[in-house]
What does this fold into?
Amino acid sequence: MSLTGKIILVTGASSGIGRATSKRLLKKGAKVLGLCRNTSELINGVKPIQCDLADADAINTAFTDILKLDVIINNAGFALLSRISDGNPADWEAMWRVNVQALTICCQKALPLLPENAGQIINISSMSGHRVPPSGGFYAPTKFAVRAVTDALRSELRADGKKTRVASVSPGFVDTPLLNNYFKGRENDLEKTKASMQMLTPDDVADSIMHILETPLHVEITDIQMRSADQIG
It folds into this structure.
C-alpha cells in the first residue's frame, strides 16, 4: 500500500520508536500527526497534538480536532519495575492507564475516522506480552492486555463486517528512554544488559511497522515478534 498522502497518527511520537517511525513515514510522503505530551520534541513536519495519555478526558479532547485518519499507530507506553508481590499499586495504575486504557480509547476514537475497507491499526506491544520475564512485574500483564485488546478488536470488526486491519509489533529489549524508567535504581543492571547484547534500535522496530503498512490490503499481519539475536528470553 502506498503511504503517499495518508494521514497517520502516531502516539508517543516524540522519542524512541515513535520518533523513528514518524521520520520513516514523512519520507514516504505521509501526513503525520504526533500525539504526545512533549510536542516540542517532535521532528519537523509532524503536526503536533498535545495530550497526556494518562488522562482519558484529554484523549477525548485531542480527537475532536482530528477529522480523518488512514492509520493509527499506538506506540506510547512506559515501563516501571513494580513487582506483583510488593510493588506499589500506584505504579500499576499508572502503567495500566497509558499502556492499556489509553491505547484502547485511541483505538475506539480512531475507528470512525478510518476508511472502512482500508484502515490500519498498529499497537506496539512487547515480548513481555507473550512470556513473563523474571523481572516482568506488572508491566508484563499490561502487555498481555495489549495483545488481548488487539485480538478482541479484530474479532469485533470482522463480526461487524468491517475490514480494518489490526496488527501488533512485539519487540524485546529496544534501546529507548523507556529502559531508563524500567531500570531506575538498577542502572548497573542496565549497563550489564546492554553489554550482553546488541539491543534492537528504534529503527529496527520502525522497519517492521513499515512492512505492515506497505503490505497489500488483502494481507493482514497479526503480530510481529522480534528481539535481538543475542537476547536469550
Residues 162 and 181 are 39 Å apart (CA to CA). The domain at 7-218 is CATH 3.40.50.720 (Rossmann fold).
